[in-house]
Amino acid sequence: MAVAIEKTDEQKAICEMVRQFADEQIIPNAEHYDHEDEFPGPIVEQMKELGLFGVTIPEEYGGMGLDLTTYAMIVEELSRGWISISGVINTHFIGSYLLMKFGTDEQKDKYLPRMATGEIRAAFSLSEPECGSDVQGIKSTAKRLDDGAYEINGQKMWVTNGLRADLVFVLVKTDPAAEPKYKGMTCFVAEKEPGVGENTGDYAGLTVPPQIKKMGYKGVESTELVFDGYRCPAEQILGGEAAGLGQGFVQMMDALEVGRVNVAARGVGIAQRALELALRYSQERKTFGREIAKHQAIQFKLADMATQVDAARLLTIRAARMKDAGERSDLEAGMAKLFASEAGRFCVEESFRIHGGYGYSKEYEIERLYRDAPLLLIGEGTSEIQRMVIGKKLLERHKI
Ligand SMILES: Cc1cc2nc3c(=O)[nH]c(=O)nc-3n(C[C@H](O)[C@H](O)[C@H](O)COP(=O)(O)OP(=O)(O)OC[C@H]3O[C@@H](n4cnc5c(N)ncnc54)[C@H](O)[C@@H]3O)c2cc1C
C-alpha cells in the first residue's frame, strides 16, 4: 500500500479549487460568523454550487462519485479555513455513506439526488444526555405500532446540524431487552422540517430545543432532539424493515470508521493552519533585536509542528486509501483520528504560544483555532476510546 501523499491530477485540481474557496470566502468571513455564532449561510450556498455536498455520492445520483481519499483532502482544505464549515458537511457525508452502503434502492432514489445538491441536508445522532462513548447504553426507543409504523421516544444530545437538517440518521433501541444489546438497535432515517423547533403534521413529536452554547465550533448548530411520540413509517428503517431491523449498531459503527478519517482530516487542516500562522507571525515579530523565528526555541516549535502535520496527514491518507481499496482499516482509522486530533490540539497550542499576548486577543485568528481544536479530541470517539479501539484491534490481529 503506497502511503505517499501524492495527488492525482483530479485531486490536485479539486484541492486547489477548495483552497482558493477557503482563502477567499471562508477565512476572511470566519471571524464574523464565529464571533456572532451565526450560521454561515452564504458560504454554505456556495458550497452547494461547488458540489461539495455530493463529493462521495455516485454520479448516477448527481454527485461527483469521488473516493474517501479525495474527500479527506477536501475536508483538510475546508478545515484549514474553519472547522465549522467541515462540520456542516460532515454529518451529511456520514448520512450519505449510510444510505449508499445500507439503504434500499427506494431510499437511495428518494434522498441521494437531493442530498448530492445540498437541497436536503443530513444529521447523525447517536449520543444522548447520559451516554456518548458507551453507545450500547442509549435509552431512546422505537416501538412498533399496530398499523406497522414505529413510534420513537427519547432524547438525543449533541446533534450537529440538528436544527437545519432535513433528515436525521438516528440510532434507537427497537428491542431494549436484547442480549447482546447491540442486536436490539436500529437506525431510522427520520424526516423533519429544517429550521423548525417544534415540528408539526407528519413530523409532530419531534422538538429541537435552542442550540447548545459552546466554547468554539460556532456557527454550526449542535442541538438536542426530543422525540415524544414521533411516528416513523417502517420503510424509514435504514435498509428496510426486513433487512435493517436490529442492524443499526453495526451500520453506525461502520459509518464511524469513515467518520474517523473525516475527523482526522479536520485535525490535519487545523494543524496546518496553525503552522502557517506561526510561520508568518514568527517572522514578523521581533524580540531581543531579531525575528522570534531566529530564536532556536521557536524554530524547535515550528519543527515539531511541521513534523506533526506531516505525520497526521500521512496517517489520514493511509487510512482513507486502505478503505478505498476495500481493505480492513478500523485500526488505521483509529490511529489517524487519535494522532491527527491530538496533532491539531498540539499545533494550535504551540502556535498560540508563539503569538504571545496577541494570541489571546480576538483580533488574531489563532484565538478561534484555540477554541475550535479541542472538539476534535471528543467528537466521533474521544482519544481514550480511540486507544481502546486500537488496542482491541491490535490484539485481534496479533492473537497468539
Ligand atoms: C460540539 C459537539 C458536536 C457533536 N456532534 C455529535 C453528533 O453530530 N452526533 C452524535 O451522535 N454525537 C455528537 N457529539 C457527541 C460526541 O460524540 C460525544 O461527546 C463523545 O462521543 C463523548 O461522549 P460523552 O460526551 O458522553 O463522554 P463520556 O462517554 O461520558 O466520557 C467522559 C470521559 O470518560 C472517558 N471514557 C469513557 N469511557 C471510557 C472507558 N471505557 N475507558 C476510559 N475512558 C473512558 C472519555 O474518553 C471521556 O474522557 C458531539 C459532541 C460535541 C462536543
Provide a descriptive summary of the structure in words:
Helix content is 52%, strand content 12%. A 4-stranded antiparallel beta sheet has the order 2-3-7-6, with helices on one face. Strands 1-4-5 form a 3-stranded mixed beta sheet. A two-stranded antiparallel sheet has the order 8-9. The chain has helices spanning 9-36, 41-49, 68-81, 83-102, 105-117, 240-244, 248-284, 296-324, 330-354, 365-372, 375-378, 383-397, and strands at 122-125, 141-144, 150-160, 167-173, 185-191, 206-207, 222-232, 286-287, 290-291. The longest helix has 37 residues, at 248-284. Helix 3 (68-81) runs antiparallel to helix 8 and helix 9 (330-354) packs antiparallel against helix 12 (383-397). With 400 residues, it is an alpha+beta fold. It binds flavin-adenine dinucleotide (FAD). The site of flavin-adenine dinucleotide (FAD) has 23 residues, from strand 1, strand 3, helix 11 and helix 12.
The share of residues in helices is 40-55%
Say which molecules are bound, naming each kind only once. Answer: flavin-adenine dinucleotide
What number is the mean pLDDT? Answer: 97
Q: State the shape.
A: globular
SS elements, strand count: 9
State the secondary-structure class: alpha+beta
Write out the strand line-up for the largest beta sheet, numbering strands in chain order.
Answer: 2-3-7-6
Keywords:
binds flavin-adenine dinucleotide; alpha+beta; about 400 residues
Could you write a compact summary of the structure shown?
With 400 residues, this protein is an alpha+beta fold. The protein has helices spanning 9-36, 41-49, 68-81, 83-102, 105-117, 240-244, 248-284, 296-324, 330-354, 365-372, 375-378, 383-397; strands spanning 122-125, 141-144, 150-160, 167-173, 185-191, 206-207, 222-232, 286-287, 290-291.
